[in-house]
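Lab notebook: predicted structure, single chain.

Context: the supervisor wants predicted structures on file for every construct in the current expression panel, including those that have not yet been purified. This is the next one on the list. No modifications to the sequence; it matches the entry in the shared construct table.
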Amino acid sequence: MPAQDRSVDLVYHFARLQLPRVRLSCEAFRRHLERMYQVAVGKMPQLERKLYLERLYAVDALLAAACLEREESAWEYLFAARAGQGEQLLLDALRKRAARLFPRDEQRQESAVADFWGHLLVPEGAGSLPILARYDALRPLVPWLIRSFQNWHISRLRSPNERVETLPDDETLALPTDLIPSGPESLPWHEVFREAATDWLETLSEEELLLLGLLWRCRLSQRETAQLLGVHEGTVSRRLAQLRERCHDFLGRRLEQAGWLSDDFSHLLYHEMGQVLLESPRCSLHTLGRLLANRGLNVPQESAIP
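Prediction complete. Output recorded below exactly as produced.
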């Protein structure tokens, strides 16, 4: 048996151990995995199968494949999936995004979630793919679905009077092919960025984590943050600017070391940083609460997980 075939078998059986109620056959998994690989190659033409299998989110690949095969147990797993540190259900996370897209319109919010969920398996038109069939398994499924939900509805809001093709998913937006090095060293850049961003968070002091948490987690303004911490607003602004500059320098160096060929990685920063912050234990509400408690303060009541 070829080495790659053995690798796929190992991926399949590992994923089945994590999702024991999913009964998708190994043959069907192989077929879907090949399709996912072709989706990835469409974004990264130089991506080799070996590297793809090394970077693959195996459990999510099996879950997506089984959902496309309409396995009821797989859909049960997906309905029970949770998003981010807040451990909210996937559907609740989608409803929160819908509330931000369509404020004060509960009926439209509900229909937005229902429409998206329905098109996970059903293409929008002839020649198009169902949303779930566009997943390449190179990032966690739940964050990808949340981002795809947002992109899908933004595309409709931009062109309400004509048939609209779904926007590319965030990996496409974050992976300009002219910036990807050719050859076997090519990497999924969103993963490189996320690893670098996670490492950067480890370099922050508790004071810097507190500042980031209040501004991002609790969505306080610079003025509100300054009032809570008992410092001048200009101090908060200056510290934030220093933090932003250090972040940009750190991430820029890491991407350059990995072979990034451009000075501009703003699209990666825009599409990936929020999820990194959401998933990092260093930026959790629990950590923020501890840091505030050390100062005799409480987490602001209006804090919310985005």
